[in-house]
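Hi again,

Forgot to attach this to my earlier email, sorry! This is the prediction with calcium ion bound. I've pasted everything inline since the attachment limit keeps bouncing my files.
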Amino acid sequence: MEKQKVILDCDPGHDDAVNILLAGKNSGIEVLGITVVAGNQSLEKTTKNALNICQYLGLNIPVYAGCGQPMIRDKQLLAGDIHGESGLDGPVFEPLKRKEEAEHGVQFIIRALMESDGDIILVPTGPLTNIAMAMRMEPRIIPKIKRIVLMGGCYQLGNVTPAAEFNIIADADAAHVVFTSGRPITMVGLDVTRKVLCYPQVVERMEKIGTPAARLFVDLMGHFNKSQKQVFGWEGGPLHDPVTIASILDPNLLVTKPMYTEVDIRSVQSYGRTNCDFFGYSHRAANADVAVDIDVDRFWDLIESGIRAYGS
Ligand SMILES: [Ca+2]
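Structure tokens for the complex follow:
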């Protein structure tokens, strides 16, 4: 099978870290670069986290720091309640030797797409600032994007407000730019990621693999599950971001439904909501394939084989 070329645009973040792990040594995926954005923590911290994950896993993937602030709003929303002070509390890493590339993340996205044959999938798992900035700086990249598989939004309940999900509300203007870009979008929202809860038996299953990659997973999930329980009362946290790469690896993983989806960038109460026209009331052409269901067993099998790909 030909490898699918991807750019991971992320804000690590525990679930972003597992997404990097899942993509990093997969025979079906080629990661061209990791671009980092502020989100779960400040840009400085999320960039350091991305580098730490790559160094720990021995992944030679270039890491580019992108935007540290939303496109228009002046205050960056962070998620320290879930991801801790560092943005990746839990694992203890060796001193960091790796450095980010000199090129800005947005410039890298533009360059990679302009030099491509239109075969790159963008996989954003943080606020969409880098992707939207790239689209505005160089609109010629837009037709070159093969598709966008993003974690964000929900057609049911949000996780920051009843209406909105974190990645979208953190930069709703950027999300608006992306959802109106005209490129094919798969929206992996909370509606499906809340079905892949990382219960203790999942953690035990991965721990038995007994390798450094498995250790990283266990250390990440130890903190993540603790904070998810404090904030939401769940025994296992939803492993949001890896559903993106898992769905690229297995096109049958998700059930999706085409929906016209509009990001609310106007209201107060529902700001940042992805309004998904589930029933097609608007008669407007769908701009997103919205994930509505997931094969949960298959997902954990993909995570297990992703960990096993790192060997002993
Ligand atoms: Ca994320």
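DSSP finds twelve helices and twelve strands in the chain. The pocket of calcium ion is lined by residues 10-11, 13, 15-16, 40, 125-126, 241 (CB under 6 Å).

That should be everything now.

G.
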